[in-house]
Design a protein that fits this description.
- By secondary structure, the chain is α+β, with helices and mostly antiparallel strands.
- Helix content is 28%, strand content 26%.
- The chain has two domains: 190 residues, Beta-galactosidase, Chain A, domain 5; 442 residues, Glycosyltransferase, CATH 1.50.10.
- Strands 7-8-9-10-17-14-13-12 form an eight-stranded antiparallel sheet. The protein has a five-stranded antiparallel sheet with strand order 3-6-11-16-15, with no helix packed on it.
- The chain is elongated.
- 53% of the residues are buried.
Length: 651
């Protein structure tokens, strides 16, 4: 795959742009303008007075906008200083604005040309090195046009060019510029037959609450605002159901394919921003669920996922099926309406009925292996997802007057007892949970970040936490393992312990830091009372965010942190990514300890006692459908500053 770790990626799905830091699109790698996974423009090279501008600065000014600043020294310049500044603002939805400013004390007559080209290649073909050559262009209106079997695309310019040379893909102008004067050219890229498209995040500003952060650490507000922008940029909708918004997994590589587990996990972490995303995600995935009889009944399909060097690929459909009722139950706690809950409850019941059907005479939930049904491998994180789904699902069924809650609780109790006995590897240092258990009872012993899901228990009525799969002693031991140098890189939690065979700091599941797993670990450790371990991981991932300009990628290298510096990027990581953008929302609300119970009209505050970031205030969240604000003092005391009428502080 072409590296993208230094690329500037603007996203407003279904549109995105991938740009190098110098701003010139040369057709190399994955550069270009895209719509729905199709590259509409691969080359956009600007020359002023016969010269390439010299790049000075580049950066994101929003999730969908990239700004480049460069300079040109014209042949008539009297000295070594540049006399023309060029600003390029590239918008993901298909526009680029070029502004040239004359800073010399004399008038200039500037020849300007833009070389354009495209291959109309599919993003998957580009990723695998299968992109074709540039297509021939034709002059079209005030610009150029390209066509192939994949469709047609045009670029129009305002003002119209003085000359358009189709054979070379060139648009040319000549601008007189007085001293201090400026001129602007706008290029608009459009796929013919699609019409103008507004980014979903702009067209539907109410999807996410306008959350802000204040306090002793000014970086947290920048991080939170960037995350909300990225979440808006990743919103997608099904054409047949445009009201149901959900998140794409990430850009550029995972903006089109289905990723139900990531969509559900991100929507769950983003619940403090409102329940609209959760409702749209659940409705969209409920339509993909197998509803008929047979071994697939109730399954939400999903692709297989690499699990690292020690385990075979896992089924994300199993994970998504278990996350569905959890998200519905917790969204109801945050303020999902009774009508929406009732609408989605049948799909959740089908998910929950899969638990006894999948387990059969056993107790563990094993991997789904297609038509063959469940396989023999029981992964530790899947047991955690299943246990949480059973407990939260049982409470949901009871609250909605549906049967089945008692059976789910009884099965969860059996799983809890068996897991504590049979999934724990004893050793002189205190033991550790196995990564998986095979059909013949053999334990897979390696330690990885997937174990963090054992700490994620879920939210019950009144702000209480569901019991976990581990007992108190085992939880304490796992907390110490996650905080050890082998797992805590200083930038977050490694996906595989540095002491394990085949550890690779750049391994997708063999040593990289994955932001989602670190956030889950921080929240779970904080809930279990392990403040020191939670704080260490929290500080690490927040420091990493600063190294990435507060736009966290889905993963980065698990190299040990030394001094200040910055984490090492992973060349193929998506940035933005749905789970990485939602994770800081979970981290910051973990610090304030907000645990709502909208049906009961209460909210409980359980802030992290040590106040690791000093004073912290979160405004513009949503609980029970109304704005909610909370502040934690430097002493770790929390208070509600804004809440819905009638919402009471729980005990």
């Amino acid at each position: 795959m072409p590296p993208v770790h230094t690329a500037l990626i603007g996203v407003a799905l279904p549109h995105l742009t991938v740009s190098p830091e110098h701003g010139q699109l040369t057709g190399a790698g994955v550069e270009g303008f895209y719509r729905a996974g199709r590259r509409l423009l691969s080359r956009c090279r600007l020359r002023v007075a016969g010269r390439d501008p010299v790049a000075s600065q580049a950066g994101m000014t929003g999730a969908d906008r990239t700004r480049f600043v460069s300079t040109v020294r014209t042949p008539s310049a009297p000295g070594p200083d540049p006399d023309v500044m060029v600003e390029r603002v590239r918008h993901a939805e298909g526009t680029e604005r070029l502004t040239l400013r004359n800073f010399s004390p004399r008038p200039l007559r500037l020849p300007v040309e833009v070389a354009l080209g495209t291959d109309l290649a599919d993003l998957g073909a580009i990723a695998s090195g299968g992109a074709g050559p540039d297509l021939p262009a034709s002059v079209h209106d005030a610009g150029l046009r390209w066509a192939s079997a994949a469709g047609s695309v045009s670029v129009t310019a305002t003002p119209a060019p003085a000359d358009a040379l189709a054979s070379a893909g060139l648009l040319r102008w000549e601008f007189p510029l007085p001293p201090g004067g400026e001129v602007t050219v706008e290029l608009r890229v459009r796929q013919e037959g699609t019409g103008p498209v507004r980014p979903p995040g702009r067209a539907t500003p109410g999807v996410f609450a306008p959350a802000r952060a204040t306090g002793d650490d000014p970086a947290v507000d920048t991080l939170l605002r960037t995350c909300v922008e990225d979440l808006r940029a990743l919103l997608v909708r099904a054409p047949a159901h445009p009201a149901d918004l959900h998140l794409a997994a990430g850009a550029p590589w995972r903006a089109g394919g289905p990723a139900p587990a990531e969509a559900l996990a991100a929507a769950r972490m983003a619940l403090p921003l409102g329940t609209r995303l959760a409702a749209g995600t659940l409705r969209a995935l409920a339509r993909t669920q197998y509803t008929g009889p047979g071994p697939r009944g109730g399954l939400i399909p999903g692709p297989r996922r690499d699990a690292g060097p020690h385990l075979p690929p896992g089924c994300t459909g199993t994970e998504a099926t278990l996350l569905f009722p959890v998200l519905l139950a917790e969204a109801r706690r945050w303020g999902l309406t009774d009508r929406e809950t009732e609408e989605l409850l049948p799909a959740a019941e089908r998910c929950l009925r899969r638990l006894p059907d999948t387990v059969g005479d056993g107790v563990y939930v094993t991997d789904w292996t297609g038509d063959a049904g469940p396989g023999g491998l029981a992964r530790c994180e899947i047991q955690a997802h299943a246990h949480r789904a059973a407990l939260l699902g049982a409470e949901l069924l009871d609250a909605c007057g549906r049967p089945g809650g008692r059976g789910l609780r009884e099965w969860a109790e059996r799983l809890r007892g068996a897991f504590r006995r049979e999934f724990w590897i004893e050793d002189p240092s205190g033991g550790r949970p196995a990564a998986a258990r095979t059909a013949d009872g053999r334990l897979v012993p390696h330690l990885g970040a997937a174990a963090a899901h054992l700490l994620d228990t879920g939210l019950l009525a009144g702000g209480a936490l569901a019991p976990g799969l581990l007992d108190a002693a085992q939880t304490g031991r796992l907390a110490r393992l996650l905080a050890s140098p082998a797992m805590d890189s200083g930038w977050g939690l490694r996906s595989l312990s540095a002491r394990e065979a085949e550890y690779n700091p750049f391994g997708h599941r063999a040593g990289v830091v994955r932001v989602q797993e670190t956030a889950v670990a921080v929240a779970g450790l904080a809930a279990a009372g392990h403040e020191r371990e939670a704080t260490s991981l929290l500080r690490g991932v927040l420091a990493a965010a600063g190294g990435f300009g507060h736009r966290l990628p889905e993963m980065y290298a698990g190299e040990q942190r030394t001094g200040h510096g910055a984490p090492v990027p992973h060349p193929a990581a998506c940035r933005p990514a749905a789970t990485a953008a939602a994770a800081p929302v979970l981290l910051l609300t973990t610090l304030t300890g907000v645990r709502p119970d909208a049906p009961a009209g209460t909210v409980t505050l359980r802030p992290l006692p040590g106040a690791p970031l000093g004073e912290l205030g979160l405004t513009g969240l949503r609980v029970a459908g109304a704005p909610f604000s909370v502040r934690v003092s430097r002493l770790g005391l929390a208070m509600v500053e804004e809440a819905a009428d009638g919402l009471q502080l729980g005990v």
